[in-house]
Amino acid sequence: MKNLFAALILSSFWAGCAAPQKPVIEMTEQQAARQLSDYQQKAAQRPEDVNALFHLAQAHEAMGADEQAVRELEKIIALDRNFAKAYLLKAKIHQKQNDSAVVLATYLKVLALPHGHNYVEQVATEVGMPYAIRPLTVGPGNNVMARFSPDSQQIAWQSDRNGDWDIYLAKADGSAVQAIVFDKGNDEGPAFSPDGQFLAFVSNRHELEPRSLGYEKREIFLYDLTFHKQRRLTKNDIDDWAPVFYPDSSQLIYVSEQDARDDDSFVVRKSRLLTTKVATIEPHYFRKTKAEQTSPAALHDGRLAWIEIDDGIYRILTGTADVQPDTLMSDAHPKGGLSSSQRGESLTFFMKKDDNVDIYLLNLYNKQLLRLTASQSKDIYPSLSPDGKQIVFSSDRFGKLGLYTIDLSTPTSLEELRSRIVEILTNAESSQKTE
């Protein structure tokens, strides 16, 4: 039960990421003890003063006396069932104890108060549901790895609705669906060029027979959105995937197992970032390193963001080929799907934390991280629209992988937040009964 819920609740660090942090004033142990004694005296003099009792509960919590703090909070709630701060502090204490079911139930009580609408933003941020999420209707089968067009008006993605993976195109609202790349084999991972002329994608159509040890050999292709023609860009004996255009549309960066070596005894597979000019097809290393590199995302100013894995340490880096990269995150196990808006102020990706896979948004200026989804489902491969207003991602929350959108301009409503918390609690309870 504890592990099931642990993935659903953010620590207080995540809650603070949505707003600028206030400076923390450290108190010595003696100062804290004197303050606690002062609040105890005031509470004893005014036993029905909820504010005095709340200050006492806060002091107990600050001293690590959580059980005593909860007892004081229960007194407050008995005196005034609409005292929201008491519920919120109680939720914070139970969150530290990983009592996630109690935390969610307590938040529901806050939202049910007469002035519960005043706490929607705070609760939504703390549980990882800060913005409105809507399903994007794009048809049957599994739908994944969607990307926005440069004008944010269309999406391209891969779907297996017809038996293997094909590339589809639709309006950003999910209407006017059409298959545009549907050859034998799997066509995957579409990416628009910034000028809107091409889609880059990967395919194994040239090699339908599986290789030894399951080693796949995919190549990079271009689809001309104006003339509806396809062109193969890479032709080698290695696996290439995850193509992304540079802002000027003249170059691609992609992931390649350039160092792969296949012989009678083993296969060495290390992913490297390669760049190539679309016209000449001459690949070059983006940046030589012993670490594995994956999931590139081109930023508007010519820099690149990517995930690098070295000795089990995961990092999200940003930089250029000839400059020492800047570390945006380290050892947080981001899984991939890096994507940035045209202005480049933020980066989205999916990450596994506490046995749950969710979507996150990283501010590139202050490096603050915000969790955008909180679900028992697997939320993967987000794409930030070029205008920075929404994110499209894939989720298996209703069985097969479907596409959903996060509206970054619309905070979660009171009704939606309550409904989603109830859904999480109900699903978790059902799962516990079947164990």
Helical coverage, percent range = 10-25%
Strand content: 25-35%
Overall shape: it is elongated
Number of domains: 2
CATH C-level of the largest domain = Mainly Beta
According to CATH, what is the topology of the largest domain? Answer: Neuraminidase
Look at the structure and give the mean pLDDT.
Answer: 86
**Sequence of strands across the biggest β-sheet:** 1-26-25-24
Query: How many helix segments?
Result: 9
Instruction: Report the span from N to C terminus.
Output: 10 Å
Write a structural description.
- Helix content is 25%, strand content 35%.
- By secondary structure, the protein is of the alpha+beta class.
- It folds into 2 domains: 2-129, Serine Threonine Protein Phosphatase 5, Tetratricopeptide repeat; 131-411, 6 Propeller (Neuraminidase), CATH 2.120.10.
- A 4-stranded antiparallel beta sheet has the order 1-26-25-24, with no helix packed on it. A 4-stranded antiparallel beta sheet has the order 2-3-4-5, with no helix packed on it. Strands 6-7-8-9 form a 4-stranded antiparallel beta sheet, with no helix packed on it.
- Helix 4 packs antiparallel against helix 5 (66-79).
- The longest helix has 21 residues, at 414-434.
Write the layout of secondary structure elements.
Blueprint: H1 2-6, H2 12-16, H3 29-45, H4 50-62, H5 66-79, H6 84-96, H7 100-111, H8 120-126, E1 131-136, E2 143-148, E3 154-159, E4 166-171, E5 178-181, E6 187-192, E7 198-203, E8 219-224, E9 230-232, E10 240-245, E11 251-256, E12 261-262, E13 267-268, E14 272-277, E15 284-285, E16 292-298, E17 304-310, E18 313-319, E19 326-330, E20 334-340, E21 346-353, E22 356-363, E23 369-371, E24 379-384, E25 390-398, E26 400-411, H9 414-434
